Amino acid sequence: MKKLIEVVMGGLSRERDVSFITGKACSKVLRKKGYKVKELDAKGDFINKLIKLKPKIIFNALHGQYGEDGFVQSIFETLKIPYTHSGVVSSSLAMDKELSRKIFQKNNINVPKYFIINTNYKNDLNKKIKKKLSFPIVIKPINEGSSLSVYICKNKDEFIKNFNILRKKYDRIIVEKYIPGQEIQVGVMGKKALGAIELIPSRKFYDYKAKYSSEAKKRHIMPAHISKKKYKEVLVLAKKAHNLLGCKGITRSDFRFYNNKFYLLETNTQPGMTQLSLFPEIAKYKMISFEILVDWIVKNASINRW
Fold it and tell me: Which domains does the chain show, CATH number per domain?
């Protein structure tokens, strides 16, 4: 009998439903591979349940807050149970759009011009925007995933409207210059950048619905429609970002390509693993099946993944 693998999914974030889809897809594959698999919803007394079950490996299928921000990783480290994906510090850094961007900028990776603002800001918001950036702009929380609560604002009225929506849910948000151009996403597996895929969504951008709804019409171009030179460049940038943050396992870095330059928006330490997800599609192009990918992720599990 192979090792007991605990697939941790669900959790407390706004991406709970998608996490279940990822988790169940991976559980199905692992059972086919002969592993003994248990599924666990990461809420309530799930820590005590983990202790009782004594799994040999934890497959982290969580998305969003508490699942990919270093919180649950610190629990796995404390329990000394080998787990998949990135560790405590790298997960925390990647999830925090301010800290990760400072690291990227310091290491010559382009990011959109931005600033951070507290949602209790009392002064003239439009004056601050005018001083720092020009429209269109993008506003979003500094620590959400799956493009949740992201708004593109073409003018000050749209900004005020969407800012007032965000301030009810978040303490701090990031305000950045909107970068048009091609959406390019790159998958990194271990020490290798696998490939770059281009997204052409029918919606304004590759938002939560475009990522997870089969009803949202979108085109994926694999490999991305850019020159060979630029294709190699973006792979290098994604691998560099992965390494700078200290990531483990798999990551997906999201770029915009505009005026012959790549702008890194973020690096995701828990890429979706659903039928619509991009990382499995990138891997498939490199002749890595979904089954092989999931098995590799499990075999890559360890502790001390800081």
Answer: 4-84 (3.40.50.20), 93-109+180-299 (3.30.470.20), 114-177 (3.30.1490.20)
